[in-house]
Design brief:
2 domains, nicotinate phosphoribosyltransferase, 17 helices, alpha/beta, globular, 5-stranded parallel β-sheet, single chain, TIM Barrel, 7-stranded antiparallel β-sheet
Length: 478
């Protein structure tokens, strides 16, 4: 996001509202906005949040230039005073966020913005599209990696992504979700990710014979030789020619083959046949890579059939989150300040899932001291303190359902990122985020990670927040 002009990456209503706030003299009124989502994609059991670093870079570089001011002026709907204000615009507020790689659940504020109303409003679109996209891809990747059962997963989706940014930052999110490399060279360079890729079918077709294609490739890349064996006939031609080249080119020079790749056909059947042929030829160490429209369900099925696949290259279904390509994050006003007093705000709807949680809030996570597993989250008012030894949670929809928690460690999930417009957060590098994300996943019960009918994790409202919300809903008059 650095060195890119993104100030106009905003829904137009953000500018019309901002101009209205300015004209009515309320633009400096302190407001609180929450970014959260309402439902986990694919009916899953958890979400991995991603994209915070790009949010930080965007806010740090947020400055309107003359050409942007001139464009807005030419629309003839904004006041000159508002446009003059934009000339000196910068973010001066506070921002809290849940770190990248954290497991999160519906209605938990991933980001909370406390800022003058006009500043908080103008952040909306960019924060949403960044967190929505990367969290979606990180979560989808995690589902795929979980089903690979310890086998390597590479992100191979560049050419099927919805544009350059979706591919570039999607690869970053995939790494946070557990992929070990990417096919996109730009992402590999930009984020210090391992690049992965060898040849396409066009390489094989370029030469007079499949054998010649394999032989040439092995001569050029003897130490990383992976051969695509399904261009003509995997069993009758591809694997025999690969074995022949391994014996004639690699072994005499002291090298071992890296892998063969299967990109079509019955992957379970072909991988078992290939494994037998390679083993009988003395290449037990040669890995088998599978590609071709894979997703978590197909990978699960392949392994249940006994497929002998070591590495999965997953493309379009990962990089587009094809099964559910929209992450429904929203950005809602939770409170404003008037004369130093916090005034909670709530949005209601006939669709109850859209009713928001009011006020300035915190999120706490409880970990069982015996197992180390996460057992519940609680959303509280910002000034609440969780006791260290005993806490009662309850179902916000059925408050008579209660559970007493003991022997736990409690952790506040959000961290402060900006204070008075200044960055106060040490941004972790991608490797640190990946390690943290793995540790987060290790705190989940297996029942939450399954792809079919996962166990629903408990997210509670504190008694004080629940009472505030219900009081506000009961006192609303139309």
């Amino acid at each position: 996001m650095k060195d890119r002009k993104l100030e106009l990456v905003a829904d137009f209503y953000e500018f019309t509202m901002a101009n209205g706030y300015f004209e009515k003299g309320i633009y400096n009124q302190v407001s609180y906005f929450d970014l959260f989502f309402r439902r986990i994609p694919d009916g899953g059991g958890y979400v991995i949040t991603s994209g915070l670093q790009q949010v930080i870079e965007y806010i740090q570089n947020l400055k309107f230039d003359e050409d942007e001011i001139e464009y807005l002026k030419a629309l003839n709907i904004f006041s000159n005073n508002f446009l003059d204000y934009l000339k000196d615009f910068k973010f001066t507020g506070d921002l809290w966020a849940i770190p990248e790689g954290t497991i999160v659940y519906p209605n938990e504020p991933i980001i909370t913005v406390k800022a003058p109303l006009i500043e908080a409003q103008l952040l909306e679109t960019m924060l949403l599209l960044t967190i929505n996209h990367q969290s979606l891809i990180a979560t989808k990747t995690s589902r795929i990696v979980n089903q690979a059962k310890g086998r390597t997963v590479f992100e191979f989706g560049a050419r099927r992504a919805h544009g350059v940014d979706a591919s570039t930052y999607g690869a970053r999110a995939a790494i946070i979700g557990g992929a070990l490399g990417t096919s996109l060279t730009l992402s590999a360079q930009k984020f210090n990710i391992k690049p992965s890729g060898t040849m396409a079918h066009s390489w094989i077709q370029t030469f007079d014979t499949e054998y010649e294609a394999f032989k040439t490739y092995a001569e050029v890349y003897p130490d990383t030789c992976t051969l695509l064996v399904d261009t003509f006939n995997t069993i009758e031609s591809g694997i025999p020619n690969a074995i022949k080249v391994f014996n004639e080119v690699l072994v005499p020079k002291g090298y071992r083959p890296n892998a063969i790749r299967l990109d079509s056909g019955d992957l379970a059947y072909l991988s078992k046949k290939a494994r037998k042929m390679l083993d009988e030829a003395g290449f037990e160490d040669c890995k088998i890579v599978a590609t071709n429209s894979l997703d978590e369900h197909l990978i699960k099925s392949l392994l249940e059939q006994g497929a002998k696949i070591d590495i999965f290259g997953v493309g379009e279904n990962l990089i587009t989150a094809k099964s559910e390509p929209v992450f429904g994050g929203v950005y809602k006003l939770a409170a404003i300040e008037k004369d130093g007093e916090l005034i909670p705000k709530v949005k209601i709807s006939e669709n109850t899932i859209k009713v928001t949680n009011p006020s300035f809030k915190k999120i706490y996570r409880f970990y069982d001291n015996t197992t180390g597993n996460a057992i519940a989250d609680v959303i509280t008012l910002h000034d609440e303190i969780i006791p260290k030894d005993n806490y009662v949670i309850f179902d916000p929809e059925n408050p008579w359902k209660k559970k007493n928690l003991t022997n736990y460690t409690v952790v506040e999930l959000q961290q402060q990122i900006f204070k008075n417009g200044k960055l106060v957060y040490d941004i972790p590098n991608l490797n640190e985020i990946v390690t943290y994300s793995k540790n987060q996943l290790n705190t989940l019960w297996d029942e939450i990670k399954r792809i079919e009918n996962p166990h629903k994790y408990t997210v509670d409202l504190s008694k004080e927040l629940w009472q505030l919300k219900n009081t506000m809903l009961n006192n609303i008059y139309f």
